[in-house]
Amino acid sequence: MIKEVTITGGTHGNELIGIYLVKSWLKEPKAIQRSNFKTSCYLLNKKAIKECRRYIDRDLNRCFNTKILSSQSELYEENLAKEIDELLGKKGSDNPKSDFIVDLHTTTANMGLSIVVSNENQLTWEVISYIKDKVPELNVYMWRGDEEDSFVDSIAPNGFAIEVGAIPQGVLRSDLYQKTEQIVYHLLDFIEIYNSDKSYSLRDVEYFEHVMLVNYPKDKDGDIEAMVHEDRQDRDFELISTGEPLFRRFDGEIISYEGEDLYTLFINEAAYYEKGFAMTLARKKIKKI
Amino acid sequence: MIKEVTITGGTHGNELIGIYLVKSWLKEPKAIQRSNFKTSCYLLNKKAIKECRRYIDRDLNRCFNTKILSSQSELYEENLAKEIDELLGKKGSDNPKSDFIVDLHTTTANMGLSIVVSNENQLTWEVISYIKDKVPELNVYMWRGDEEDSFVDSIAPNGFAIEVGAIPQGVLRSDLYQKTEQIVYHLLDFIEIYNSDKSYSLRDVEYFEHVMLVNYPKDKDGDIEAMVHEDRQDRDFELISTGEPLFRRFDGEIISYEGEDLYTLFINEAAYYEKGFAMTLARKKIKKI
User: Fold this and answer.
1) Which end of chain A is less packed: N or C, by CB atoms within 10 Å?
2) CB pairs below 8 Å between A and B: how many?
3) B23 touches A: beta carbon within 8 Å
4) Helix (H) or strand (E) holding B195
5) What is the pLDDT of residues A18-62, one digit of tens each?
6) pLDDT tens digits, residue range B172-188?
7) Which of A172, A174, A233 sits opposite B173 (nearest CB)?
8) Arithmetic mean of pLDDT, B250-275
9) CA B208 to CA B213: how far, in whole Å?
10) Under CATH, domain B4-203 is a member of which superfamily?
11) Could you tell me if A114 and A162 are in contact, meaning their C-beta atoms sit under 8 angstroms apart?
């Protein structure tokens, strides 16, 4: 039995779709209310939202690991993470405040409608299966992050992030706003079925399992020396094979991919420049439900 | 006779194409050297570039009006503008350091390859005509800015900004990088012809003349109440007529356009949210050359 589902927006202060969806639900909560559980929603990083920046001191969505949650810190987001863990967790608790966290994100990569999941629980995957049945274009990426086990949804027993793109930081797109909204409604609809006596049947889920990050080539000063090759740009969830163009150096030279056939994801995400990677690589798999 | 052409990048610290083009020319200046004039290039807002932000205290590309250039200030960009005016101007001087400034920008709006020009000088428009002949997809927008006469290129007798998009802030795209590079090379090629004894002939130029800004609807707290309607998104340089959808409110309601038939430009540019406008409107005209 699920008692509380939590929708979080503004984990990154410049990803406007989640921020404005949460603002609209805080004003008019009817659309997210269901008959047999409570739905709560929160704007998480209000200071970053105000400045329309991803974060103030460090990426909030990399702060929810047990080390940070149990240490003293002077960084704004590390302390904020502890407050959020008190409010919605605590992480690993047998009696958490929230049973399911869905965290709303956008990306500058052409990820379409995606779920980024690091949770192995049955219910989480049943929710994903249900949504994918309603929204066949949805892609599912099993990724624990570039810093493991640190996402905000990791403080509840179940959850994931919704990632939609391509959309610039600091921008709304009405089409992706409405599609994100619909995914959330499907999620809530399924939890209502799950909590009821109704029977349901679900299909196995095709998903992409994280393999590795692909770093930008850098010069001796640590600045990037190349950009994503124009033939790879926007080809998220597509295969790449040895010999295909990967980067173009600023002097024009092409750097080709070398490695096994894998799928390219999060290609050219703005926030990953400072982390140093240009895309991630993943393998297609099937999750038995 | 043109003695010096100046290419500026990083006027906005999160518009990476101009920044990395200038970095690459600072390393390898051969590509921008021509036989009969000097080409210089500069990164303008190094502090904002380092933080990958548009600006630190205020938009540098709104600081080059005579009022700011002649006043005391504590704002970083207002003082930087004065330094740049010393380096490349002075504005209005009979003997300016630079004769032509081309300032490299990107936009999250779907502006394709565009020139934003606020200069009426014959040479500026001859350059535009020459480039448009080489790059027919180029659009020309005659706009003096939301704050008049304040662009960096206004401190030289001739010049304009190149605006390419759609591209998120903080992101490179190889396709648009190469196209921006080509536009700059055409510019330099024409100045070389202009300075020589060669004769040339040019065509009249179709351009878009600024009419007005379109503001976002706002609530009593000053927050936006609507986003660009999904049918208007990405339709830069297209006509809008009375009755066509303009905005979608967060509650779903549609706000339609009312007014004369005009062209929509700079639709959904990230940097214009804080300025409060969602797009600009323009009229198509012909410039006699």
Assistant:
1) N
2) 89
3) yes
4) helix B174-195
5) 999 999 999 999 999 999 999 999 999 999 999 999 999 999 999
6) 999 999 999 999 999 99
7) A233
8) 97
9) 14
10) Zn peptidases (3.40.630.10)
11) yes
